[in-house]
Amino acid sequence: MTLTEHKLMEESFAVAAADASHDERLAFERLLTDLSARFANVPSKDVFFEIEAALIRIREFLGFDRCNFGEFQEDGTLHILCTSTVDGVDPLPLGPFPAQLTWYLGKMRAGEVVAYQSLPESLPPEAFAEADYCRATGMRANISIPLRIGGDVLGDFGLDAFRETRAWPEDFISRLKLIGEVFAQSLARKRSDEKLLAAMAEIKALKDRLQQENTYLRQVAQSRLPRGLSSRSPRFKAVIEELEQVARTGSTVLLLGETGSGKEVLAQAIHDASARRDRPMVKINCAALPATLIESELFGREKGAFTGALARQPGRFEIADGSTIFLDEVGELPLELQPKLLRVLQEGEFERVGSARTIKVDARIIAATNRQLARAVSEGKFREDLYYRLEVFPIEVPPLRERREDIPLLAWTFVKEFSNSMGKPIEDIAEDSMAALRDYPWPGNIRELRNVIERAMILARGPTLHIKLGHTTLRPQAAGSTTGTLEAAERTHILQVLEQCGWRIRGSNGAAELLDVKPTTLESRMKKLGIVQHI
Questions:
Q1: CATH top-level class for 24-193?
Q2: The pTM is what?
Q3: What does the radius of gyration of the chain's CA atoms come to, in whole angstroms?
């Protein structure tokens, strides 16, 4: 071959190489254009998926062994979110990036490109941990591009070579930087959308809380509870004095008394006389809800906390923040929930069901029970420490039979209430009816009296009210009467209560509740005494 022919052959090889390089660059440019178009309108929820797919395409196109993508968290740590490798190369573990590679992390946080070949020899002396990492993994070349928006670094992506070293021309790095800008813009848009969604969720939570409070405000506005209390009974006047003294404080109050003795009315009176009266008192009956729901009612729940929890719901304690919460029948609170109530009493904080976020509240607690809590403590049914936290200021509420002086006053209060609602003007209560009211032992207390008056008002046909119990005129049943046997007296008393309740044994205002016994116990006594309803 002549010299001229050899020179022509070299020139043809150079032209062919140039053409190949030109074709590769055009192909890479088309890849960049396609990626930019894909990320222009990608939904926020699909950003990570699109970045992962794009990196796999880049790795395969450029012939690298591994690609990685990571995002900086709020605490400054870098978390690897996706990684892709060729066969025979270990992927980078997902999750926190190795914390010992401090030199590399410092470069990324500063927004500097890291591009090294012939690893680990080409690394600077201060990157000793990174050199050890390269020797351990066999990494021979790496380029990492930080994802920057202004002065903020949101994350990075990297390409690694293990089988051979790679060179990093300036035009190659500049093109990878363009890809980094596309990724960074998508990440920034995703974060912005997430902040907007979080703000909307917070607004919704506030709206829900206002709706909850408005519900309570409507209930309070429609309530006929007295704003003040009056009494002719020396025993009950002493209770009113205690209420006035404790109302001005923020202390916990424990109301002790039989079912139907007016504990809820007294709790409302305490709240109305306190500095918290501008906000409605929140009420919950611990015995009226199943154990599976009482926790979420008291402390709230997150969406999906349990089956059927379709939305976040604030609890009664959240609604009562800055106000008063009335825990009726607190002695029925399940034992497993009592530590959570104790924590609210001691520290004013709790977590919703299904959430780890601690919520602080300032709620005054008024509790009520008809149980002997001291006995429940000794029987292991009530926590001793919770008992002492509740019993800061105990108030014994007397039953109606121990404040008979107030029976006429209460009777007329209920007559006026039902007269207004039923449109039946009553001018007088029959003398024999009032005498019977005074002498009756009232096992169901004020609640029973109210029910008796309501029944009488339904049947009333004139200005004088005649009060009957069932189909029999209410006759005196003095507590100290000695006529007849004890069993006969018990049978008569149970029959009277059953007639009053329409022979309903279970449920609110049922005979078992008015008699303060379990329904099964009442049914057993009825069977023993031969009490059968005649239809």
A1: alpha beta
A2: 0.50
A3: 40
